[in-house]
């Protein structure tokens, strides 16, 4: 795990404190990533001295961020408590959750709400409409999925486990929809920072191809992820804007073939309507 050095503009007296704090977070992240571990294991993974690792673990133990069982350190549920407080303080999530719930009552699949943080999009909320959900409404949309391909249910656990994690901004429908609302200079800066890593054979890895894709998204008003982030998963998404700036996005995902049918435009319309309703709530504070 890379720990960046103190910036040159930092006060000299502050640098040791900042470096120590960075090491503490390295230790905490390792405990979470590995779902627990002993001092030696965590020290090896972080390349920190055992004495330093032990000191930081004791600090985390004293503040309740880790617990100790049988000589092993594990992440505490206190982290979940703080995570929920953080999420409940994000206006896009607070104003958008109900609209996502409404969207998924009429469209089968997995609905996601992403929030823009800096130059990254993070998954804030996931809602699924299962295959056996009531489909009596005349307004309901469903698609015929190939029985040999993974179902929405097969992937739900994966999506829920990603809550709070960064969504690959160039390889997801929400991410690309957000990029399409930005200036070329801003997109170029984000690409310089994050690169264009490949996740599947369909991932866009060429900057020129990305800008061509963003032009298409602006023309039609929504983005499509056709197995670009994960194999067997396709997605339709649109951005949420506030004062002409992107703040997040909404998408609907389903198994491979989800975005190839004749219902794509209707699904996209419903996703766009959802983002429009969230924008109204953000503007008028409802």
UniProtKB/TrEMBL annotation:
<keyword id="KW-0805">Transcription regulation</keyword>
<dbReference type="InterPro" id="IPR005471">
    <property type="entry name" value="Tscrpt_reg_IclR_N"/>
</dbReference>
<feature type="domain" description="IclR-ED">
    <location>
        <begin position="78"/>
        <end position="284"/>
    </location>
</feature>
<dbReference type="InterPro" id="IPR029016">
    <property type="entry name" value="GAF-like_dom_sf"/>
</dbReference>
<protein>
    <recommendedName>
        <fullName>IclR-ED domain-containing protein</fullName>
    </recommendedName>
</protein>
<dbReference type="InterPro" id="IPR036388">
    <property type="entry name" value="WH-like_DNA-bd_sf"/>
</dbReference>
<dbReference type="Pfam" id="PF09339">
    <property type="entry name" value="HTH_IclR"/>
</dbReference>
<dbReference type="InterPro" id="IPR036390">
    <property type="entry name" value="WH_DNA-bd_sf"/>
</dbReference>
<dbReference type="GO" id="GO:0045892">
    <property type="term" value="P:negative regulation of DNA-templated transcription"/>
</dbReference>
<dbReference type="InterPro" id="IPR014757">
    <property type="entry name" value="Tscrpt_reg_IclR_C"/>
</dbReference>
<dbReference type="InterPro" id="IPR050707">
    <property type="entry name" value="HTH_MetabolicPath_Reg"/>
</dbReference>
<keyword id="KW-0238">DNA-binding</keyword>
<dbReference type="Pfam" id="PF01614">
    <property type="entry name" value="IclR_C"/>
</dbReference>
<dbReference type="GO" id="GO:0003700">
    <property type="term" value="F:DNA-binding transcription factor activity"/>
</dbReference>
<dbReference type="GO" id="GO:0003677">
    <property type="term" value="F:DNA binding"/>
</dbReference>
<keyword id="KW-0804">Transcription</keyword>
């Amino acid at each position: 795990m890379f720990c960046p050095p103190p910036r040159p503009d930092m006060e000299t007296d502050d640098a040791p404190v900042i470096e120590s704090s960075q090491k503490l977070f390295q230790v905490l992240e390792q405990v979470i990533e590995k779902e627990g571990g002993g001092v030696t294991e965590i020290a090896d993974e972080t390349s920190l001295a055992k004495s330093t690792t032990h000191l930081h673990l004791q600090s985390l133990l004293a503040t309740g961020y880790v617990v100790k069982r049988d000589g092993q350190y594990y992440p505490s549920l206190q982290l979940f408590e703080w995570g929920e407080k953080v999420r409940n303080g994000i206006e896009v999530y607070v104003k958008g959750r109900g609209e996502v719930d409404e969207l998924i009552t009429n469209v089968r699949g997995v609905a996601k709400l992403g929030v823009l943080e800096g130059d990254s999009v993070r998954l804030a909320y996931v809602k699924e409409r299962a295959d056996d959900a009531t489909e009596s409404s005349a307004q309901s949309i469903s698609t015929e999925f190939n029985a040999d391909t993974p179902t929405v249910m097969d992937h739900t656990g994966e999506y829920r486990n990603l809550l709070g994690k960064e969504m690959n901004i160039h390889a997801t429908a929400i991410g690309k929809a957000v990029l399409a609302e930005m200036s070329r200079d801003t997109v170029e800066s984000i690409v310089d920072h994050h690169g264009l890593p490949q996740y599947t054979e369909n991932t866009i890895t060429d900057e020129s191809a990305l800008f061509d894709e963003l032009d298409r998204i602006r023309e039609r008003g929504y983005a499509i992820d056709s197995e670009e982030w994960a194999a067997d998963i396709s997605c339709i998404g649109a951005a949420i804007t506030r004062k002409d700036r992107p703040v997040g996005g909404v998408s609907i995902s389903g198994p491979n073939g989800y975005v190839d049918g004749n219902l794509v435009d209707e699904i996209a319309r419903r996703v766009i309507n959802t983002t429009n309703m969230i924008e109204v709530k953000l503007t008028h504070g409802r």
